[in-house]
Amino acid sequence: MDKNIVSRDGTLIAHESAGRGSVVVLVSGAMSTGATVAPLAAPLSERFRVVVYDRRGRGASGDTLPYAVEREVEDLAALIAATGGEASLYGVSSGGALALRAAAGGLPVRHVAVYETPYAMSEEDLRERAQYTERLTQALAEGRRGDAVELFLRLTGLGEAVIQSARQSPMWAGMESMAPSLAHDDAVMGDGGVPVKLLASIPVPVLSIAGDASPAWMREAARAIADAAPQGTCRTLAGQTHMVEPDVLAPVLADFFAR
Q: How many domains is the chain partitioned into structurally?
């Protein structure tokens, strides 16, 4: 990241941009930085000015305690103000929940697109999310960052053998360093359920996308988002999982943002 803007509470938010035209801001999900979504910026920058940033508490951006979701919305407001005064938003996974909150919060947003925002679709899943929040909060309070990362990986559906293998890998130290930001994403997701009232208040077009190779509940969540938003539509991408291929996703987003 080569530039900083100052958010309302004084936090430095690192960002960079590429391309020309109307602004599109890419919002990353849990355990990720702007670099995670940067591969999507390249094809989109052929038609738009694409802004990639490190959310607070990760990468080159700062953090200011206590954390509140409202501060992350203010970060987006500052980015939009610094890059043209109006933008479309794309958020992946829990970053989608943040993008939707920003649009509902009255920011100068033209369109919102989200990919597989993981809202719970059953009572059992909601109970699992509540247990995750409790255990994550305790692990971070006790400084057990590795345990916090394990909790998140289990929530995503990874098996124990894969998790233990990850613990022995060179990437584990970096994952532990980002563990405190898991609480940020947990807060952004609320209780984990589809925020129907919030979605119903979004005054701009919403595109909710999922891959047909992802679990069925993710496609159900994508449909629920589109159904709740007044100008919502849903798309399913053939052959795609949660790790969507940028070259498959980018044309869909470009057509939507160009409307």
A: 2
